[in-house]
Design a protein that fits this description.
Elements: H1 2-29, H2 38-44, E1 47-53, H3 60-75, E2 80-85, H4 96-101, E3 107-111, H5 134-148, E4 156-163, E5 167-171, H6 178-181, E6 185-187, H7 191-198, E7 202-204, H8 208-217, E8 222-226, H9 229-232, E9 241-244, E10 253-259, H10 260-265, H11 268-302, E11 306-309, H12 312-321, H13 323-335, H14 340-355
Parallel strand pairs: 1-2, 1-3, 6-7, 6-8, 9-11
Antiparallel strand pairs: 3-10, 4-10, 5-8, 5-9
Helix pairs in contact: 3-11, 5-11, 5-14
Length: 356
Amino acid sequence: MKNTAKGIVLVLFVLLLSVSCSKTTEEKAAPEKQPATQEQAQKEAATELSYSIFFPPSHAQCKAGIAWADEIQKRTSGAVKINIFPGGTLTSANECYDGVVNGISDIGMSCFAYTRGRFPVMEAIDLPLGYTTGMAATLCANDYYAEMKPKELDDVHVLYIHAHGPGLLHTKKPVNTLEDLKGMKIRSTGLSAKVVEALGGVPVAMPQGGTYEALQKGVVEGTFAPIETLKGWKQAEVIDYTTDCHVVGYTTAMFVVMNKQKWDALPADIQKIFNDVSSEWIAVQGKVWDDADKEGRAFTEELDNKIIALSDEEGAKWEAAVGTVINEYIEAAKAKGIDGEKSVALLKELVNKYSK
């Protein structure tokens, strides 16, 4: 019995030793788990943000917005990833701002004018003040915001603003003087409709998408828009003349804003990157507008369309005529307790500064 017991103990000992050795061998054979690199850790903890852009994905301004988002991701080493929703797929153009405020999107790009009356201080930027280029209009818009700091934008964090080049008159027949424009049906919307009316034309409201056919069929005799639309929307194919009336050139200011809570939740170093990139992108977006205008001008000239320059004397008449639009803004602003005269004076100073 003793020998049998000793034999059983010996067998169990051998088995336990075998299992122990086997486990040790497996542990040695198994690769050691490497600690996560800083880059991997950042990617795993990346902050994802949504960005609603009203421009279609093919538009140069949408592409510039995407490049901004890519630069943010690059400079944060992947700690921030921004998902783009172009063409109003997340929020429509006129819902974009409220979409950011309410957290439907974290970031948004659209026009102040699409919710006219909501931003009475910022609306002054769109007045026919004689903008010469998209870059000038963009620089003016950002300086104006920095100086005025209107409370109407306190419910978001403003990243930057950009604005298109001067709205010009594109027509089927030549317009050299105000007399030539009198009674002509001109496609225009919002503020540009008031400009057309002040100049003696008949404003006809319609979106850019319907303008080509309207010009082609003679529903309207012209359109008021930046010259970039002549290529971007192929409108050079259905007009014959452009009156370079930049002396009364209006613009349309566009915001890039972020949800206030999402902004406040970002670490200070990430906020700095956002601000640095946004500051740089003011000039990027301004150049994109100017490049688009150059392409529009080249395209219409290739089609042998004529560009008419106003004489100094005639330009002064046009400028005097749109004075009513500017005065109307000042009075409407005053009724809302806003110093419209201060806004206009500052913008005229900035337009003069950046037009040189």
